Amino acid sequence: MKILVTGAAGFIGYHTVKKLLTLGHQVLGFDNINDYYDPQLKYDRLAQLGIDKTQIENRQYVASKTHSNCRFIKMDLTDKKILMELFRLEDFDTVIHLAAQAGVRYSLENPDIYIKSNVEGFLNILEACRRFSIKHLTYASSSSVYGNNSQTPFSVTDNVDHPISLYAATKKSNELMAYTYSHLYNIPTTGLRFFTVYGPWGRPDMAPSLFISSILKNTPIKVFNHGNMERDFTYIDDIVEGVIRINNTPPSREQPPYAIHNIGNSTPIKLMDFIASIEYHTGTKAKKNFMPMQAGDVPKTFADISSLKQHIQYTPQTNLDEGIKKFVTWYISYKERIVV
């Protein structure tokens, strides 16, 4: 297939493009390479795909030097006119939409960018899919939509009308907007609620990278809610496998062709156990500053993945110890160039 992957320089986007290329698909990667975190990490991810940083200019195609079936273009989702022209010229089969302004805590400080990127940008993607008859739109939602739900595991049938961060509200809005377009225009859409993704090339603003960085520097790590947290940590390879299987398996053509699935390991890990695994694989004991819960955060996430298993017969396979070992190995080899 010919597939557009937005957010291709991001953590999940990069790994998704890499896997799609090995499967023989034609891929156009798309990203605005913003400075929410150090853009050099994004350029280094793209370099793994054969995309030369020195050739990247706004709205110009860059062909991969190592993959004949891969190109990249730097542009912004909010540039609607150029986006429509891109869809017209390229005639994509499917779209995997992973571009978004990420970060729960950052949304408390800079709300405007979340509306612009996550709502306006998503509307532009939906409009492009409508106008150019895309066979399936797969897009990133988030476990953040569950807010302070006390019932676990979190199920896609749960009420998620009370988000506790603007980031979560934008992701919930994406699901509502997708439903509307599926209903009105018969566009197959699938939203994937990701649960705490970690692994090589991960975002430096997320806890796994922050923990490893501080432990290796022998500086204290911030442990929120005094360590009384649980997360459904999910290794990146498991996320990518789910994304690609979903892309290949659109929801039924019955009205509306719309679906939402959780993707998580479905095994909540205590935060202190997660830290202990990093300590073991770095060979260094962490200094810990125990702190109260942060605004917009939740004490526990736990994915019910029954709908995912039913739809694509897939269950994440990577256990915590295996995933942390791979992540630490990569991080140590790359740490000189990470900025946190």
TrEMBL record:
Domain named NAD-dependent epimerase/dehydratase: residues: 3-255
Keyword tags: NAD
Top-rank lineage group of the source organism: Bacteria
CDD domains xrefs: UDP_GE_SDE_e
Keyword NAD included in the entry's annotation: yes
InterPro entries linked to this entry: Epimerase_deHydtase, NAD(P)-bd_dom_sf
A Pfam family hit: Epimerase
PANTHER family: EPIMERASE-RELATED
Name of the protein this chain belongs to: NAD-dependent epimerase
